[in-house]
């Protein structure tokens, strides 16, 4: 039995200390998922805290045969999807939110970037991706985040989001296509900004 | 080859033969839309992880403690409301019997016995009247109407049971 499973079993028996260990272990993945889903650090903090509270309240219902990470991220994803649906109901758009650098959460250093220029380029790329993610349907967004940030298989995504595997495939297909179209449009805008007086002929 | 085929390869990412890979590379040089999809795929594979501000665990402990206090407060409030409500209902139900309580024991017993006799006699009378009505009108109603009526009742009972089962089912994610 690994440490994580031991903590889960102890938490199921009512140990707050064991649950705190689980919070410490999973705070980054849960926060990252909430941030990618909701687009704002304050909302992501609140959603991640709520995710852990729900997990704490329902830990006895957790089936030890399932992966704990999948179970926890599933709670986070469903909570964020519910929030986004409620937000859409109240007609508040997040498209223009989360674009400001102030108050953004700390991102783990990019080990792939070797020089400042490349690092800046990557940051710009991530900012663009973040904006495009915010325009996706909440469930499509959750599927894409679980696929790329957590390396979940289509079967695991289906399990986490209570979907069929074919529904996951079609959602991933649609999400990638929408992001691709957004990326193309943003690249064209960027090119136009870089040479405002230039002619396309040159 | 058709643009849509290349687009599908990029979106579904099947394993490609060397010839297909060459064809895709050639297509990517001339197609901005497919080139953007490739860039998106690469960008998604280079994603970084956002992490919360320091002290997340402490903030969780504080929130958990606050939630417990709130739940305890709600439980106490709910209990008080329940007890006050039950007492009020009991008082309201007993109010008509208050004059009886104030009378002599023998008189009170007589009143109670009379009430019980009236109750049983009424029930008997209603039962007899119902039986007569069923005998008279039961024969007038065709058999298929009874079948429809009982089918509708069975259907409603099934729908009701299914609704109860569906609403009380525990969701898998929490």
Q: DSSP strand (E) fraction of chain B? A: under 5%
Number of DSSP helices of chain B? 7
Helical residue percent band of chain A: 55-70%
Q: What overall geometry of chain A do the principal axes of the alpha carbons give?
A: globular
End-to-end separation of chain B in angstroms reads 48 Å
Extract low-pLDDT stretches of chain B. none
- Please trace the helix and strand order of chain B, writing H or E for each element: HHHEHHHH
Query: How would a textbook summarize the main sheet of chain B?
Result: none
N-to-C SSE series of chain A?
HHHHEHHHH
Biggest sheet layout of chain A: none
- Helical content of chain B stands at over 70%
State mean pLDDT of chain B (0 to 100 scale).
86
General shape of chain B:
elongated
Tell me how many strands of chain B there are: 1
Rg of Cα set of chain B: 38 Å
Mean pLDDT of chain A: 82
Descriptive report:
The complex is a heterodimer of chains A (202) and B (174). Chain A has 202 residues and is mainly α. Chain A is 70% helix and 1% strand. Chain A contains eight helices and one strand. In chain A, helix 2 (16-38) packs antiparallel against helix 3 (41-58), helix 4 (68-89) packs across helix 7 (154-161) and helix 5 packs across helix 8. By secondary structure, chain B is mainly alpha-helical. Strand 1 (106-107) of chain A pairs antiparallel with strand 1 of chain B, so a sheet runs across the interface.
Q: What labels would you give this structure?
A:
heterodimer, A: 202 residues, mainly alpha, 70% helix, globular, B: 174 residues, 81% helix, 1% strand
